[in-house]
Design goal:
The structure holds two protein chains of two kinds. Chain A has 15 helices and twelve strands. By secondary structure, chain A is an alpha/beta fold. Chain B has three domains: 140 residues, 2-Layer Sandwich (Heat Shock Protein 90), CATH 3.30.565; 121 residues, Gcn5-related N-acetyltransferase (GNAT) (Aminopeptidase, 3-Layer(aba) Sandwich); 135 residues, 3-Layer(aba) Sandwich (Aminopeptidase). Helix content of chain B is 28%, strand content 31%. In chain B, the strands form four sheets. Chain B has a seven-stranded mixed beta sheet with strand order 6-7-8-9-10-12-11, sandwiched between helices. Chain B has a five-stranded antiparallel beta sheet with strand order 1-2-3-5-4, with helices on one face. The chains are: A alpha/beta, B alpha+beta. At the A-B interface, α3 and α14 of A face β2, β3 and α6 of B.
């Protein structure tokens, strides 16, 4: 007979403290729960255009019989393609099941018990989460003027700091470091720690002095760059992202990399997405027009907002963001409530197509009006 | 049950021969965990009575009893776990009395003694009939000493950080100096306990501190249950009303819990500086004071996550109320109507009673269903009214269908549903208040 709770004794304290991330329910469930017939997804910064035409055709042509065959265990063809595009060696790239997976690869490769990582307090949560549920300390540095604070991050370094994560452009504020700031930061780190620059939104950037981080890898072998196919390339449903770095660093990360974690269809979609020359300019047009519309409407509603590079805008509401989320859902519009990013009363809106943005404006203005003028 | 390296464990058969071992184990553990002599003996006495009772009623099942003692910083606890279905928990009601004419009552007398010897007890029974009985005895702390009112001057610039132990005690003085008792958590009147609770991770605080370490304000919070955080404040001491300290404290508190397992924050003692735009009004409670006055107390809440829906079990007598509240709060809920339908219930129900002496308030909660649910409510109300408790509340967990057995009795006895507290139990809690003044 068993009266004890052996499971408790098996679970590390850092796991007991950790709260599992609960993703949104599927759209059909959400529509049922909130009683809406249509749902505009403005919560995950997806590209309203979907995948590039080249990727779309490749996905459609994917032979079903190939589903029974293991994919390339290390996304061989995709890595070769990336090497061609960036003028680097294929072994400088590692693909993962979404960029989230490569975060785990890097942390596992360099951290051991007692080590810490450094990032911002109000940024993409996964660096912090992976560190904490792996038993490592995540040191969080407050944003300054909604941007990463280079000096603040350096001040937090101690002898057990292994990795510094910079989200560039920052999700959710859109702030970004230019080439000079990033180079200066890397100079101050002096090759003694790994610096990860997460460029999930790089392809949306229009500013000329945004750093060419791939080129910087040659000068700074401790630099690791993340990219994803989930945002600009519209392949979020297939889960594929990658990292790039010096061969020496990538060789170490590869040891923690789970082979075969990227499925064949994702590899094909990503490979052909890179070939499309029209997709990015078309998306830029949609995002530019959408942002102009959105910012004008937020101005008319009198709501403060923050934006920069990337296909998203963050707005401050005169009410709880989680309440606004629920009210918006009943009107068929899903935004991201930002309390989880430590921005209480803010929402993040994906800059999507005009129809979706108009639905958003109509819903939000009604909610703000009901709540009283800000 | 949390188990840490600080826990100590004893596993014995439910046999009286082990009684000296059990009592020595609990007493020594309580001593090691820092309880005073009197408190250690009370926890030992309670453990002795529980163990003796277990020996009498569960011998036939023959399983071992596991006793885990833990150090909670400001308290020590003893948790008894065993597999049994032969355990009448009636004695754990606040109202339990013993009749010397009744053999069954006499058998339960030990449990009555146990329940009165500790500060809190918890009963859990999981599927598979694993009974877990937790006895908690707190250390004794002195109340805040009489001292001249503490003061602080206006600060040009502040930053937020957790205060040190001495600063926590000073914060208690400041809070008492600048705020009415009704705005305070009673924990602020016991600064030593607050320091220990913060050290144990059961309370948290952020202070707004000036360049020279002056304290301009503070906010406190602590978890209540697995999913909810209760916050007190923000308290702002003699600062420029145009300063942003209150908002910074509130954002600091929300930010600190935003990525924890908590789903919501509640504040039932909003100070004048409390910014309502961060929260949603759940409803009000009537706060009766000894001087005969009555003031409405607002309950404010905010979710920390996007709500993706929940199923709740609702008695028909509560249906209209919860539907209205869910619609008002825009909370998506699948409402499942449920009521007792002749199924066999245990004879005796159990209610827990959580006292807030400072506020003259008690909150009753179902711990065990029973055929006597209505009578049990009535007994508790009579007892509490006899003890001059002015504010009697009752919380029903809508995530636990068995608790609906208490609804007819609540409504019949004059309890009114006042608000729904999202995610504060297994699902949402329906909070009732007994109508009128009770003294």
């Amino acid at each position: 007979m068993m009266t004890a709770q052996p499971l408790e004794t098996l679970v590390p304290d850092y796991i007991k403290r950790f709260q599992a991330y609960i993703p949104s329910k599927p759209d059909d469930e959400l529509k049922k729960i909130y009683g809406c017939s249509k749902l505009y997804r403005l919560n995950n910064n997806e590209n309203p255009l979907g995948p590039p035409e080249t990727a779309r055709r490749a996905i459609e042509a994917f032979p079903p019989a190939q589903a029974s065959i293991y994919p390339s265990g290390d996304a061989h063809h995709l890595r070769c393609k990336l090497a061609d595009i960036f003028g680097m060696h294929p072994d400088q790239f590692l693909a993962g099941n979404g960029a989230n997976e490569v975060i785990a690869f890097v942390i596992k490769a360099f951290c051991q018990q007692g080590d810490n990582i450094i990032t911002a307090d109000k940024t993409f949560a996964v660096y912090e989460w992976v560190a904490e549920f792996s038993g490592f300390e995540a040191r969080l540095v407050p944003l300054v003027d909604y941007g990463f604070d280079a000096s603040g991050m350096i001040d937090k370094i101690d002898e057990r700091t292994k990795i510094l994560f910079v989200c560039n452009p920052n999700n959710p504020t859109g702030s970004w470091w230019n080439e000079r700031t990033l180079s200066s930061f890397l100079d101050r780190i002096d090759g003694k720690r790994i610096v990860v620059v997460d460029e999930a939104y790089r392809e949306f950037v229009r500013s000329a002095d945004f750093p060419d981080s791939m080129a910087l890898i040659g000068k700074y072998p401790n630099l690791v760059v993340f990219r994803t196919f989930s945002k600009m390339y519209g392949l979020a449903g297939l889960r594929i992202g990658y990292l790039a770095g010096s061969r020496e660093v990538v060789d170490i990360i590869r040891r923690t990399c789970i082979v075969y974690s990227v499925n064949a269809l994702a590899q094909v979609g990503a490979f052909f997405a890179l070939a499309d020359k029209e997709h990015i300019p078309r998306t830029h047009e949609i995002v530019s027009a959408g942002k102009r519309f959105l910012l004008k409407e937020l101005d008319l509603m009198g709501l403060p907002y923050v934006h920069g590079e990337g296909n998203f805008v963050m707005a401050r509401l005169p009410m709880s963001d989680s309440l606004a989320y629920r009210k918006m859902m009943t009107r068929g519009v899903m935004v991201r409530a930002m309390t989880g990013f430590r921005f209480p009363n803010w929402i993040r809106i994906t800059v999507s197509c005009q129809e979706a943005l108009e639905a958003f404006v109509e819903a939000l203005s009604g909610i703000v009006k009901d709540n009283g003028a800000p | 049950m949390k188990r840490s390296a600080r826990d100590v464990m004893l596993s014995v058969d439910a046999d009286e021969v082990f009684l000296p071992l059990v009592t020595a184990f609990v007493e020594k553990a309580a001593n090691c965990f820092g309880l005073g002599m009197d408190e250690s003996l009370m926890l030992t006495l309670a453990s002795e009575e529980v163990f003796m009772h277990l020996c009498r009623v569960v011998t036939s099942s023959g399983g071992p009893v596991e006793i885990v003692c833990s150090n909670g910083g400001y308290y020590a606890q003893a948790v008894f776990s065993l597999l049994t279905d032969a355990f009448d928990m009636r004695a754990f009601n606040l109202t339990a009395t013993i009749s010397i004419e009744d053999d069954a009552d006499l058998e339960a007398m030990g449990l009555v003694i146990a329940s009165r010897s500790v500060d809190r007890f918890l009963l859990n029974r999981e599927e598979g009939r694993d009974l877990r009985l937790t006895l908690i005895k707190e250390k004794t702390y002195p109340m805040l000493m009489e001292a001249p009112p503490a003061a602080v001057g206006p600060l040009a610039k502040t930053s937020l950080r957790p205060p040190g132990p001495e600063e926590v005690k000073f914060l208690s003085q400041l809070a008492v100096s600048y705020y009415d008792t009704r705005d305070l958590s009673d924990i602020l009147l016991y600064p030593g306990k607050l320091v220990d609770m913060i050290k144990a991770g059961e309370y948290h605080c952020l202070a707004a501190v000036g360049n020279a370490g002056e304290i301009g304000g503070a906010i406190f919070w602590h978890p209540v249950g697995e999913n909810t955080v209760e916050c007190f404040g923000p308290y702002v001491f003699n600062q420029d009303p145009a300063s942003n300290i209150a908002e910074e404290l509130m954002e600091g508190c929300i930010g600190a819990v935003a990525r924890t397992q908590s789903i919501g924050i509640i504040n039932t003692r909003p100070t004048p500086e409390f910014s309502r735009r961060y929260f949603e009004l759940l409803g009000t409670l009537d706060d009766y004071a000894p001087d005969g006055s009555c003031a409405p107390v607002e309950a404010w809440f905010r979710l920390l996550r996007e709500d993706t829906g929940l199923a709740v079990w609702v008695h028909p007598g509560l249906d209209a109320f919860v539907r209205r509240e869910y619609a008002r709060l825009v909370l998506p809920r699948e409402i499942r109507i449920d009521q007792p339908s002749g199924e066999t219930l245990p004879r005796h129900s159990v209610l827990s009673a959580e006292f807030d002496r400072l506020q003259g308030r008690v909150t009753l909660r179902p711990m065990w269903p029973g055929a006597d649910a209505e009578e049990n409510i009535e007994r508790h109300v009579r007892l509490l009214e006899g003890e001059k408790v002015l504010n009697i509340h009752f919380a029903v967990d809508l995530g636990q269908a068995w608790q609906s057995v208490f609804i007819p009795g609540l409504l019949a006895r004059g309890f009114e549903p006042r608000f729904v507290l999202p995610y504060a139990g297994k699902a949402d809690l329906a909070v009732f208040q007994l109508r009128g003044r009770h003294s």
